[in-house]
Amino acid sequence: MKILRPEVLKCVRYNVPGKHGALELVDDLFVMLFNVTDEELDFICANASAEENSILVDAVSGAENSLQLFTNIRKALEVRNKYLEMYRSI
């Protein structure tokens, strides 16, 4: 099981009463998959190009085979790491 950072766990809302909307669930999916806070995810989405955002979505949506899924996740983590480094340098 993936161990999430404590600050990321505070951002997860799927178990908070009254916060079970579709947008919150999608947000939680990205937060948990990429182990980022809401602020980090917002920064990534705001600064990433359309192609890079597409790479992130492809990693969440799956693939036809396990090799393609692995490739999608690897590319998405490269995008994530690039923007987390930028976020932390601000």
Task: Describe the structure in your own words.
With 90 residues, the chain is mainly α. The protein has one domain (6-88). It is built from five helices and no strands. The protein is globular and about 35 Å long.
Summarize this structure as a short list of keywords or feature phrases.
single chain, 90 residues, mainly alpha, globular
SSE pattern, N- to C-terminal? HHHHH
* Measured distance between first and last alpha carbons: 31 Å
The total count of strands amounts to: 0
Sheet/helix structural class? mainly alpha
Helix content: 55-70%
Sheet with the most strands, sense and barrel status:
none
| Low-pLDDT windows of residues | none
Whole-number mean pLDDT:
91
Global geometry: globular
CA gyration radius, whole angstroms = 13 Å
Strand content is under 5%
Quick overview of this protein structure:
This protein has 90 residues and is an all-alpha fold. Helices cover 69% and strands 0% of the residues.
Blueprint of the fold:
Blueprint: H1 6-9, H2 22-34, H3 38-47, H4 50-61, H5 66-88
Helix pairs in contact: 3-5, 4-5
